[in-house]
Amino acid sequence: MKNILTICLILFAMNVNAQEVNKKIHDQTKNKDVLINACTRAGITSFPEFKEMYDPIYEAYNPDAATIIEIKKLIHNQKIKIVLGTWCGDSKVNVPNFYKVLDALKFKEKNIEIIAVDGNKKSENGIIDGLNITQVPTFIIMDRKGIEIGRIVEHPKTTLEGDLLAILKK
């Protein structure tokens, strides 16, 4: 009986801590449906408002081949956190372009975390607390230990791949 109770408590705790992935809410600030919290690439690329721009923008972007070669020499087990708004014009342009860069690098999906925020740039359950998100998208580049080494905020200073290379060269 004690073992069954322990298992039930563990399952309850796991369920309480589990977050719904690709969660859709109606955002009062933007007066539209948006994604919130942890998302997957499949989730954001199938969300109607985001998808309508994602596919053509992704196809049209051509990362600089020489810069990609340089990045490949420097990128080793880094992690990337992408904080975006499915309602945000800059997210709709720069997230597909950033994914085009990551795909050119053959960057592992398991090392990418996507977090969607509402119109107030907030998420639920404190998952962006401490990240100092003021604009979206924000691409946070971290070392293998999860320590931030740099970020691209809203739009690149040069190109996404150029800014990523500059961060990795630090």
TrEMBL record:
Transmembrane segments: none annotated. InterPro entries: Thioredoxin-like_sf (IPR036249). The keyword NAD does not apply. Gene3D superfamilies: Glutaredoxin. SUPFAM superfamilies: Thioredoxin-like. It holds the Pfam family Thioredoxin_9. CDD domains: TRX_family. Keywords: Signal. It comes from the Bacteria. The keyword Signal applies. Residues 1-18 form the signal peptide. This is Thioredoxin.
